[in-house]
Amino acid sequence: MKTGRILIVDDNEDLLKAARIFLKRHFGQIDLEKDPTLLPDLLKNESYDVILLDMNFTQDVNSGQEGFHWLDKILEIDPSAVVVLITAFGSVDMAVKAIKAGASDFVMKPWENEKLLATLLSAIKLKSSQVELQLLKDQQQVMRADLDDKFKDIIGQSPSMIQVFDTIDRVAETDANVLVLGENGTGKELIARALHRNSKRADRPFISVDLGAISENLFESELFGHVKGSFTDAKTDRPGRFEIANGGTLFLDEIGNLSLPLQAKLLTALQNKRISRVGSNRVVEVDIRLICATNMPLYEMVQRGEFRQDLLYRINTIELRLPSLKDRIEDIPLLADHYLSQYTKKYNKDIYKFSEAALKRLEKYHWPGNVRELQHAVERAVIMSRDNILQPEDFFFNATHQPKDNGDISLEQYNLEDVERILIRKVLAKHNGNVTHAAQELGLTRSSLYRRLEKYGL
Question: How would you classify the pairing of strands 83-87 and 50-54?
């Protein structure tokens, strides 16, 4: 398809017609205008990829001043406009002056069609690049706005989380190495990203490495890089994570999984602040801020000889311990509401809240998988629920970690209406939806049971 919108402004009507006949074969839209005084109104209503502007109109035959005047007006209206000036009375000095004034190019009359076409195609590429650059700037502005939310995606107002936020505030702007400790699912990488986001390196890379997922024979290649031919699969030169993170933050997750030989190699790189790619003797200086994380008991591992004490001292200038979810019960409603909003949008479900009984059930659960398990539980409930309010029975837990109740239904956990609704639902399921049989077992008349079904939306 022909694309590109061209505006030609010239007081020579024959020239305009000739230009249109030639250019309409190559571009999607060719607009003509003889009177430059109409440019302001025209540009307020139309957007062009290129404006081809004559420099001399009826008031001035050969000085080009009118062209410069209207070039200024166009750029005043649209600073991103791409303008190509045309004239029969040109010189090198005038061309230089035109470019300095903001024109993208300069064309002499009479022009050669192929040269004119090439000039306009180049000008359209310039316009396209400007649009892409502006889009990139807009995206970066949005990203910076997101980064300004210093604890983005970290939700909590419990005393233990307020202490975590306070530590991030005090530590982030330094270059101190940080060791984040906590159970699986507590959000260690979120904390690492918050530290980076609030650091002086925020506009530099944040590189995350899961050390638990890297095999021993690929450790050096992944972290330090390799050169072509250094081993069988080394088809090209490749930088490692240390080089990629240079100037920014390197996050080493699951550091407790490293074997002692790999711990020694990592310690050497951290002490020397330099690395060499596998297969190369060239030394590369690296400047990183190091954040590590693990759910393993590093201090006990040091005592057992499973983790190097000197490496532990190197990585834990600041130590930050994350609380488990069971130790911050007051944050569960906030977290649950956050994930409810997230997944109702994702799955286009009309669910707007949790029942009181459902929240109590969530608060009583032990949450061995911490925040990550809560997130998955809410996602599953949103997917499976047919109601617009999430109920206790919408959540399914591992039998070994069920909330502690004295019976099938605890009055401490549910109010009386919840008990009745749950009981009716169970009996209906038992009788495959047969209202008559369910009413008989419940000791109700069919009409009484129908009223309750309507009341509870069953």
Answer: parallel
The Cα 323–Cα 320 span in angstroms is 10
User: In terms of DSSP bridges, do strands 178-181 and 206-210 run parallel, antiparallel, or are they unpaired?
Assistant: unpaired
Question: 363: left (phi > 0), else alpha (psi -120 to 50), else beta?
Answer: alpha
- For 73-223, strand residue ranges (E) read 83-87, 105-108, 178-181, 206-210
Strand partners, 232: none
pLDDT tens-digit series, residues 251-306: 999 999 999 999 999 999 999 999 999 998 889 999 999 999 999 999 999 999 99
Mean pLDDT value across the chain: 85
Determine whether 216 is exposed, middle or buried from the number of CB atoms within 10 Å of its CB (0-12, 13-18, 19+).
exposed
**Does the pLDDT value for residue 148 go beyond 50?**
no
263 token code pair: 């711990």
The partner residues of 208 in beta bridges, in order of sequence, read: 251
Which spans in 172-279 are helix H? 188-197, 219-224, 241-244, 260-272
Distance CA 436, CA 338 (A): 41
